[in-house]
Specification:
296 residues, mainly beta, 15 strands, four-stranded parallel sheet
Length: 296
């Protein structure tokens, strides 16, 4: 079985890969690595920090436990690449095909994903302060952020339909103009999170802790928030038509402009927890009506 030995190079310079005798990899100093092929190679434990890769083929490559901090991947193919347990701090991925890529257990703080496809990717790692813009996370399979640290991460104009966020920490994160339809956010932590102008049709928030979240201008139709706890959440102008709130608790929430009508599951909401909520006239009348029905 071939082995690829990676020699550490000056971190201040990029490197170019040159294959020799089909069983050894030598890294030479260069300003950039462009149009190189690494498909299927085992490059675990490589030191490639601060390097710019352009149009390189990393499909099915093993880079686990490697140092890629501050590197740039531009128009690269990382399909099913293994970047688990890597140092990805400050790494940038621009317009890359990353379907099925794994960054499990990586340190990916401050990583940037701009454009590209992360469908089916395993992103269960530390993604604090990460930035995602115009990324497609869905195709025939969906990305997983299961248990990920996404504190203060920023998602903008991303297609996250069906992605898994169960047990993830989104404290202070921003999600703007994103498609979040059908995501699994069971027992997710949303504290001071901003979810603006997003769609959450059939999103699953069962048992979620949602505190100080701005949901203004978002479409919540069909969202499931069974036994979820809402505290200080701004829901002004959000339609709750079709939202399932059985067993949910709402404390100090802004519900102005919310119209709990149609198939909204208000019947099992803890009404005592709405006493300090900010309610419009319509909402107050509706809740009083429900209370009257419950005591009759």
């Amino acid at each position: 079985m071939s082995s690829y030995i990676v020699r550490q190079v000056d971190f201040d310079m990029a490197v170019r890969a040159v294959l020799e005798n089909n069983d050894r990899m030598r890294l030479e100093a260069s300003s950039d690595i462009t149009d190189e092929g690494f498909r299927g190679m085992d490059l675990a434990n490589a030191t490639l920090a601060g390097i710019r890769f352009t149009r390189c083929d990393f499909a099915r490559v093993v880079l686990s436990l490697s140092n890629l901090a501050g590197s740039e991947f531009i128009d690269c193919d990382l399909t099913n690449a293994d970047l688990s347990s890597c140092d990805l701090k400050g790494t940038t991925f621009t317009n890359c095909n990353m379907k099925g890529m794994s960054t499990a257990d990586a340190d990916a703080r401050d990583v940037v994903f701009e454009g590209g496809n992360l469908a089916g990717a395993n992103l269960a790692c530390d993604l604090a302060y990460a930035k995602f813009a115009y990324v497609n996370f869905t195709d025939l399979s969906f990305a997983s952020f299961f248990g990920s640290n996404l504190a203060y991460a920023h998602f903008a104009f991303c297609n996250l339909r069906g992605a898994e966020f169960a047990l993830a920490d989104l404290t202070g994160a921003k999600l703007e103009h994103c498609a979040l339809d059908g995501i699994d956010a069971s027992r997710v932590r949303l504290d001071g999170t901003r979810v603006q102008a997003c769609t959450l049709d059939t999103a699953q928030f069962t048992g979620a802790h949602i505190k100080g979240v701005d949901l203004t201008e978002s479409c919540l139709m069909g969202m499931q928030a069974l036994r979820a706890i809402f505290f200080g959440v701004d829901l002004e102008g959000c339609s709750l038509r079709g939202v399932l709130l059985e067993g949910a608790q709402l404390n100090n929430c802004n519900l102005r402009g919310v119209l709990p009508e149609g198939s909204v599951g208000w019947g099992d909401v803890h009404m005592d927890d709405l006493t300090r909520a900010t309610l419009g006239e319509t909402e107050s009348e509706e809740i009083n009506s429900i209370r009257a029905d419950e005591t009759s």
